[in-house]
């Protein structure tokens, strides 16, 4: 029994990571149908900055956490201004996919130049103790991912539902000209969405560096995996994305155990292709509402 | 006069051919001029040109940006390497098998990709690319895992084994052939149909062009070329590994096409030269990839049309002014314009189209309420009514753009279910749109020729190789299109892109394009909007000429005087309901019509007018 | 009209920028190799007048686990500095022509041709990334110049049938023999589970250990793989090894991935000895595993955490720390880079250069194979390290078993 | 309140507005009538700033707003009810109304907003029933009531209406026009673009007839109603 629990728990913490990054995609895709293909690199940047501030800069944990998240958020603001706005020309314009990939290449190489290739883990305030639940073990610093993602999800939903910025975001997603008529510059709303998405990426990266090693080359694989989560869930459904992230993390652990570790990776992408054949808009995609809240 | 035009056009084509052959001759002398380092780079350029010409067809013509085509190169490479190392088959047979398997896997990718569109399209291709990469790492028996396959036999003919020189010449021949195929495709109806579906899917469907079939052809060609170039590379370097074709390679392939200029035949050549030579020149150690990414971004930002595209748009206006082919005079014989469209024999007074009880809802809006209508063959039947009355909605329902919630249709006595635009177009119903939907990248003549795509559909193979049969049908299409342009009295330059047409002309060319599908029923949605008085006069003459040759026209128009002069019957729609059908005089003086239009209270005074 | 001219203006600007960039690099490139400007003392007597000796350096500076490949390159740089400090090889300074393969086999191939034809190097050193090395090997045979493989463990890249490649590396087959001998001696068990990353490095090691065990009629109890960059949770892999009753884990991941294996073992409450190689020696494993890494073994060919017993090693460590400000992060790669380069220089000196490129390359190859003579390196003292049949300098008894003790990798008392 | 002098707008080759002059005072309704494609919608879009005029001056309460962007003009108290209504289909009725608060959305308290809602629901009880429904499920008439209320909730000085009667049944059109009359009575200046000339002129004080980008007729409603040139110009007989 403890094996199944062990697999589930350890899969959960990895699933939280995927969910957090995929949430970043959904925020921007909902607003103007574009997303930042270098989101993975932003997460890497969050982790590297966190490690840099906490370990090398000896700043307190929470100060460096906030700094890392903010810097990545502001960077994403710049990326939107340069790499997205010019290319966002309606439904199936694709140039922004390429421009954000190019930005990703630049971020990764500059990070390599500044930070060097080494891997680093930021010591977590939760220490390295182990939490034992009925024989299954998980580090506190890993387990803390779950509540953090839960809190962020609730904040995001409240933001969509209650705050007027959230309302503006959903209105821009629905009808951009009407938003302009209502006296709100839709470009500003898109920029805010990108900053929030950058913030999420920064938080994801910083959180990740407390238990997993971050180095400059982890960005791309993480980004590709998180895109699959977003596609699986249907990009306009925050709750669906977190669920899909967790399911993916857990099923990876079980597939590894019961089928074979070799085919684990193919399972994820195979599932994505199956979904795209059967339900291209994603499993939890709510047809009608632009943002399922 | 005409001979002079043909000859000058002939000169330009001949000059093109001579320049092409000279370039290939020079490149063919390469192996004896440069050392193996530059020869290897030229070889790599050839490999990229082969794949990227296929991708150019996919991105430039069909508008599908696939970021997973390195996977298809890998399939071609692994299939041929596996068969040649395991079973010792000759290079020539394994390459063919490799291409076939790439085609099969490419088709698997094509189905969801073409259906999805938008950002999902790129995600699907990325997912496929990554799955192929993972399979190659895992499936040791087939791919040798991460260490790949070594010692792959080099191609042989008779005694001669191909070394780098031989492989380079082989690649040169293949890439020249690939470029020729792309050029032929661009000049064929298949190429035009691809660009049509890319630019305006709805307009293409209304001409009877099925998006899936056309775009699948693009995908198939690109898959085969990718498989071929993958196989050649593997056998040339006698080693293949999963890392050779990963996500970064797919991005590189797309960049080559975009950098060169998507949709331009020579685009991939320029793109490949830059992408292959750039890393060799940037041999600084630090921030090399950052500069690479920077250049990629700069090209996307500053040169959206790519290098060849920007040069072309810079040079061609000058070229055209310099070598201005003066417009063809209207051909001297408009009267006996041969039956340009197969209009049926007057169906003895039986109505060509009957609509009964058509209902249509948009969410809460009840757009069409119980619409019933009879349209007599060989007449002009106008639909009038205030804005938002449902006129365009009715047209969209008849043409199959929207599906109606209720009601049934009969066309020439047979029951008609307007499933889709292309299906309805095949039944001989053509239409134009309220806002111009011309294909901007195609020239005026090519726009009209896309109307003929449905009828004169020669095979894909024939189009690629430009076989005599296909050439003849191209000539025929050109002739018919010129005749149609003469019919509508178009005097402007027929080779300039449609995007440069003045507004009025755009409407007329759109009508000519609709006529090219040889319809028996033509639906026109506000053709006169934005036209000058003289253009409206021309339109009136055209409609009379068409109807006299047996065509039936359903016309939506706001210019009441035009409607009055040209219509046989007028139907007035208001608030989704038909409030009257009859002769123009009867309808336009009917108090209910005026009330609907002017919104006057039951003011007796105005009714008398 | 404004928008149209605006576009042309930006087009013009871009073309100027591109020209400047190409010229700047082109200039730098043709003017002479922008290689590692060896800081030879300016005052050497007339040595600079003669043509410098060009040696190619193929690195993987960007991409996954670049931290190991940096050590290889740094080791070679120290060798070049030392040789040039002594006035170069019979008066001619050594210059490195550095190229980055970006872990891309296609680029690796073009670099070999670049070394041979464009830069016209005498010999080259590199071979960190196994798959790139495999792609480069056949091309080296075509281009016919000596290439020193200084890290990649894949046996195939330096087989006897490959006359032009020489290995100063831990050949997976030989490493597996040494590891099996060590495990049988100290843990008297042959129940070994192999956990490896799915790249060339991991795959090579897994295949070698399986072959070595099968030679003795045995079989690894479990062979599990993981993805170095993507996988963060190894519970499944470790659990399958545990269920198979493994008593030792032969671990071949890179850095942090090994750390996640340690974490998974900790969660499953399962403690068995671990024997790894370069990946385990790298600080990434310790960074993640922290005290869990205590007592894990890493097969190396050198160890710089302890004071050096060999003279060459002392000098090497001093020069390395002076130049880079820290000791090597992966000992074996640095040591093998240094020794590989020094053997090349010794062969060049012994062969004597006639100026004809093809003959000189042939001469260096033959010297390496026949009369290289004695060379006292960082790793060990060699007596004719290579023969025509065997191009691998590191044999079973030139390994050094190291162990993690309170956060540092030291030489283990069990050898 | 609003003065437009010599306004010209060109879309590429099409010369949509060729020098238009319009005057409007507080609490006054001016109707702009004319056949389809005459340039009526372009006029409203130019006033709000959705379209940048090529020539001419637009002044709101004496302040020039000719080249000001749409969202800035909107916050100066100009609300537009666009042709085809443009509701936020996937937002609920209340959320649509909340968007009407424009930039003041942050400063308006919950209670204040509730009070505004009561006013709206009192005027349009049907919106009260459907307040939590998604806007795209509303009927044409209900959507028109929604966008009208949304435009009024920010108490604009100038209300621009683009063919409110589009696709509505006559009884609903009467209800809408009655409301427009009340709004003017409460002091809002209204520029009403409408195809139904008689209905528009019945509530407007003055009217402008636009034909092919020019104002061909202009005067008090009663004068225009009896001018037979109006019907001819209207039915597009050139």
Explain this structure.
The complex is a heterotetramer of chains A (293), B (609), C (415) and D (238). By secondary structure, chain B is of the alpha/beta class. Chain B has two domains: 34-319, ABC transporter involved in vitamin B12 uptake, BtuC (Orthogonal Bundle); 346-608, P-loop containing nucleotide triphosphate hydrolases (Rossmann fold), CATH 3.40.50. Helix content of chain B is 59%, strand content 11%. In chain B, the strands form four sheets. A six-stranded mixed beta sheet of chain B has the order 10-11-12-7-13-14, sandwiched between helices. Mean pLDDT of chain B is 83; it is low at 324-339 and 602-609. Chain C has helices at 2-31, 66-85, 105-119, 130-143, 172-187, 200-215, 235-243, 256-267, 278-281, 283-289, 311-324, 331-351, 357-369; strands at residues 53-59, 94-100, 123-126, 147-149, 165-167, 192-197, 222-226, 248-252, 274-276, 297-300, 374-376, 381-383, 400-405, 408-411. In chain C, the strands form three sheets. Chain C has a seven-stranded mixed beta sheet, with helices on both faces. In chain C, a hairpin with a 2-residue loop joins β13 (400-405) and β14 (408-411). The longest helix of chain C is centred in the N-terminal third of the chain and has 30 residues, at 2-31. The radius of gyration of chain C is 23 Å and the shape is globular. Chain D is an alpha/beta fold and 238 residues long. Chain D has one domain (2-233): 3-Layer(aba) Sandwich (Rossmann fold). Helix content of chain D is 37%, strand content 26%. In chain D, a hairpin with a 2-residue loop joins β9 (206-211) and β10 (214-220). Chains B and C meet through α3, α13 and α14 of B and α1, β2, α3, α4 and α6 of C.
């Amino acid at each position: 029994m403890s094996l199944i629990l062990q697999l589930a728990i350890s899969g959960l913490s990895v699933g939280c990571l995927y969910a957090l990054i995929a949430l970043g995609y959904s925020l921007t895709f909902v607003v103007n149908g574009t997303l930042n293909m270098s989101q993975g690199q932003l997460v890497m940047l969050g982790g590297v900055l966190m490690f840099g501030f906490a370990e090398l800069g000896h700043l307190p944990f929470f100060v460096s956490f906030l700094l890392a998240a903010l810097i990545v958020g502001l960077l994403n603001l710049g990326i939107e201004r340069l790499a997205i706005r010019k290319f966002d020309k309606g439904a199936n314009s694709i140039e922004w996919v390429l421009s954000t990939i190019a930005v990703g290449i630049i971020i990764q190489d500059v990070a390599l130049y500044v930070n060097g290739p080494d891997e680093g883990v930021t010591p977590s305030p939760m220490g390295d103790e182990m939490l034992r639940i009925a024989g299954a073990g998980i580090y506190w610093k890993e387990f803390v991912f779950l509540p953090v993602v839960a809190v962020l999800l609730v904040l995001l939903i409240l933001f969509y539902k209650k705050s007027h910025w959230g309302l503006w975001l959903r209105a821009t997603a629905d009808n951009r000209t009407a938003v302009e008529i209502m006296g709100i510059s839709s470009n500003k709303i898109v920029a805010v969405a990108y900053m929030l998405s950058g913030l999420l990426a920064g938080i994801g990266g910083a959180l990740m560096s407390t238990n997993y090693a971050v180095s400059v080359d982890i960005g791309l694989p993480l980004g590709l995996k998180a895109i699959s989560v977003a596609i699986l869930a249907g990009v306009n459904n925050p709750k669906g994305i977190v669920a899909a992230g967790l399911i993916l993390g857990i099923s990876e652990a079980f597939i590894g155990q019961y089928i074979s570790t070799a085919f684990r990776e193919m399972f994820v992408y195979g599932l994505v292709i199956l979904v795209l054949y059967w339900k291209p808009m994603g499993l939890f995609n709510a047809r009608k509402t632009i943002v399922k809240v | 006069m005409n001979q002079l035009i043909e000859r000058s056009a002939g000169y330009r084509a001949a000059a093109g051919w001579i320049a092409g052959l000279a370039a290939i001759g020079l490149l063919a002398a390469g192996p004896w001029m440069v050392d193996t380092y530059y020869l290897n780079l030229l070889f790599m350029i050839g490999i990229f040109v082969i794949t990227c010409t296929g991708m150019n067809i996919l991105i430039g013509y069909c508008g599908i940006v696939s970021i997973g085509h390195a996977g298809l190169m890998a399939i071609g490479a692994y299939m041929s390497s596996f068969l040649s190392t395991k079973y010792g088959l000759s290079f020539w047979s394994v390459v063919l098998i490799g291409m076939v398997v790439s085609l099969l896997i490419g088709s698997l990718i094509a189905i969801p990709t073409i259906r999805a569109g938008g950002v999902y399209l790129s995600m699907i291709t990325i997912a496929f690319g990554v799955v192929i990469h993972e399979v190659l790492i895992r499936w040791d028996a087939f791919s040798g895992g991460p260490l790949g396959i070594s010692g792959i036999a080099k191609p042989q003919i008779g005694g001669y084994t191909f070394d780098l020189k031989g492989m380079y010449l082989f690649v040169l021949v293949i890439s020249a052939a690939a470029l020729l195929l792309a050029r032929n495709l661009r000049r064929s109806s298949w190429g035009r149909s691809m660009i049509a579906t890319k630019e305006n899917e709805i307009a293409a469907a209304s001409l009877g062009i099925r998006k899936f079939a056309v775009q699948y052809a693009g995908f198939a060609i690109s898959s085969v070329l990718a498989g071929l170039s993958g196989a050649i590379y593997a056998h040339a370097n006698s080693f293949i590994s999963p890392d050779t074709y990963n996500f970064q390679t797919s991005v590189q392939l797309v960049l080559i096409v975009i950098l060169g200029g998507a949709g331009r035949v020579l685009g991939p050549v320029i793109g490949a030269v830059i992408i292959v030579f750039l890393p060799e020149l940037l041999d600084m150690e630090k921030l090399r990839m950052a500069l690479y990414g920077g250049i990629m971004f700069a090209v996307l930002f500053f040169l959206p049309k790519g290098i060849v595209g920007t040069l072309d748009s810079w040079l061609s206006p000058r070229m055209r002014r310099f070598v201005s082919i003066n417009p063809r005079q209207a051909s001297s014989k408009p009267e006996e314009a041969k039956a340009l469209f197969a209009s049926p024999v007057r169906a003895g007074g039986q109505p060509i189209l009957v609509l009964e009880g058509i209902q249509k809802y948009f969410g809460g809006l009840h757009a069409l309420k119980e619409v019933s209508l009879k349209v007599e063959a060989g007449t002009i039947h106008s639909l009038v009514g205030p804005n938002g009355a449902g006129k365009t909605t009715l047209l969209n329902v008849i043409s199959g753009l929207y599906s109606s919630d209720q009601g049934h249709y009969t066309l020439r006595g047979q029951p008609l279910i307007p499933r889709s635009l292309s299906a309805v177009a095949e039944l001989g119903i053509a239409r134009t749109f309220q806002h111009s939907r011309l294909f901007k990248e195609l020239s005026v003549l090519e726009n009209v020729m896309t109307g003929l795509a449905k009828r004169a559909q020669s095979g894909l193979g024939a189009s690629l190789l430009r076989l005599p049969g296909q050439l003849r049908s191209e000539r025929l299409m050109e002739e018919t299109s010129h005749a149609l342009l003469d019919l509508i009295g178009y005097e402007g330059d027929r080779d300039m892109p449609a995007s440069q047409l003045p507004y009025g002309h755009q409407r007329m060319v759109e009508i000519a394009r609709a006529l090219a599908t040889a319809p028996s029923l033509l639906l026109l949605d506000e053709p006169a909007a934005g036209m000058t008085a003289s253009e409206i006069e021309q339109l009136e003459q055209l409609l009379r000429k068409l109807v006299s040759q047996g065509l039936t026209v359903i016309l939506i128009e706001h210019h009441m005087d035009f409607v009055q002069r040209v219509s046989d019957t007028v139907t007035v729609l208001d608030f989704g309901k038909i409030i009257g059908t009859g002769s123009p005089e009867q309808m336009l003086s009917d108090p209910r019509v005026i009330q609907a239009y002017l919104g006057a209270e039951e003011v007796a005074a105005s009714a008398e007018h | 009209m404004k928008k149209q001219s605006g576009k042309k203006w930006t087009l013009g600007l871009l073309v100027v920028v591109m020209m400047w960039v190409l010229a700047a690099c082109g200039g730098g490139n043709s003017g002479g190799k922008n290689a590692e400007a060896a800081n030879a003392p300016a005052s050497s007597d007339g040595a600079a007048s003669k043509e410098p000796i060009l040696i190619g350096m193929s690195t993987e500076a960007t991409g996954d686990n670049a931290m190991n490949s940096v050590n290889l390159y740094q080791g070679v740089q120290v060798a070049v500095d030392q040789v040039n400090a002594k006035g170069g090889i019979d008066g001619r300074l050594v210059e490195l022509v550095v190229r980055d393969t970006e872990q891309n086999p296609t680029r690796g191939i073009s670099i070999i041709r670049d070394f041979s034809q464009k830069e016209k190097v005498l010999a080259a050193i590199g071979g960190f990334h196994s798959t790139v090395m495999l792609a480069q090997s056949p091309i080296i045979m075509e281009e016919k110049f000596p290439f020193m493989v200084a890290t990649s463990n894949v046996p195939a890249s330096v087989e006897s049938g490959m006359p032009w490649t020489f290995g100063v590396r831990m050949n997976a087959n030989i490493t597996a023999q040494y590891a099996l001998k060590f495990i049988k001696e100290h843990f008297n068990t042959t129940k070994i589970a192999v956990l490896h990353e799915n790249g060339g490095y991991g795959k090579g090691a897994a295949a070698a250990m399986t072959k070595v065990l099968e030679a003795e009629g045995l079989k690894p109890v479990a062979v599990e793989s993981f993805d170095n960059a993507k996988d963060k949770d190894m519970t499944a892999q470790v659990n399958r090894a545990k269920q198979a009753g493994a008593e030792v884990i032969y671990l071949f991941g890179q850095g942090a991935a090994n750390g996640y294996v340690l974490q998974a073992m900790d969660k499953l409450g399962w403690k068995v000895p671990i024997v790894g190689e370069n990946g385990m020696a790298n600080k990434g494993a310790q960074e993640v595993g922290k005290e869990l890494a205590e007592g894990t073994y890493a097969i190396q060919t050198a160890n710089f955490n302890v004071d050096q017993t060999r003279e060459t090693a002392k000098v090497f460590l001093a020069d390395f720390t002076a130049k880079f400000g820290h000791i090597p992060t992966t000992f074996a790669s640095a040591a093998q880079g240094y020794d590989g380069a020094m053997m090349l220089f010794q062969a060049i000196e012994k062969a004597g250069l006639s100026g004809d490129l093809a003959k000189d390359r042939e001469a260096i190859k033959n010297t390496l194979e026949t009369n290289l003579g004695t060379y006292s390196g960082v790793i060990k003292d060699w007596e004719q390290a290579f023969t025509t049949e065997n191009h691998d300098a590191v044999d079973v008894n030139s390994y050094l078993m190291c162990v993690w003790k309170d956060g540092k990798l030291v030489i283990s008392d069990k050898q | 309140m609003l003065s437009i002098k010599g306004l010209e707008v060109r879309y590429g080759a099409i010369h949509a507005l060729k020098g238009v002059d319009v005057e409007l005072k507080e609490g006054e309704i001016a109707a702009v009538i004319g056949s389809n494609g005459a340039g009526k919608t372009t006029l409203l879009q130019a006033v709000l700033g959705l379209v940048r005029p090529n020539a001419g001056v637009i002044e709101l309460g004496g302040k020039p707003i000719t080249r000001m962007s749409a969202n800035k003009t909107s916050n100066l108290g100009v609300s537009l009810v666009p042709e085809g209504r443009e509701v936020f289909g996937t937002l609920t009725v209340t959320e649509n109304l909340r968007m009407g608060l424009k930039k003041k959305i942050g400063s308006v308290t919950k209670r204040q907003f509730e009070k505004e809602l009561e006013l709206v629901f009192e005027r349009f009880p049907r919106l009260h029933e459907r307040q939590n429904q998604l806007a795209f499920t509303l009927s044409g008439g209900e959507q028109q009531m929604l966008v009208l209320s949304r435009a009024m909730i920010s108490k604009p000085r100038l209300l621009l209406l683009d063919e409110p009667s589009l696709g509505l049944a006559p009884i609903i059109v009467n209800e809408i026009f009655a409301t427009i009359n009340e709004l003017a009575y409460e002091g809002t200046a209204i520029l009403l673009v409408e195809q139904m000339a008689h209905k528009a002129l019945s509530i407007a004080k003055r009217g402008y007839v636009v034909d092919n980008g020019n104002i061909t007729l202009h005067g008090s409603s009663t004068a225009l109603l009896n001018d037979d040139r109006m019907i001819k110009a209207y039915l597009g007989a050139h």
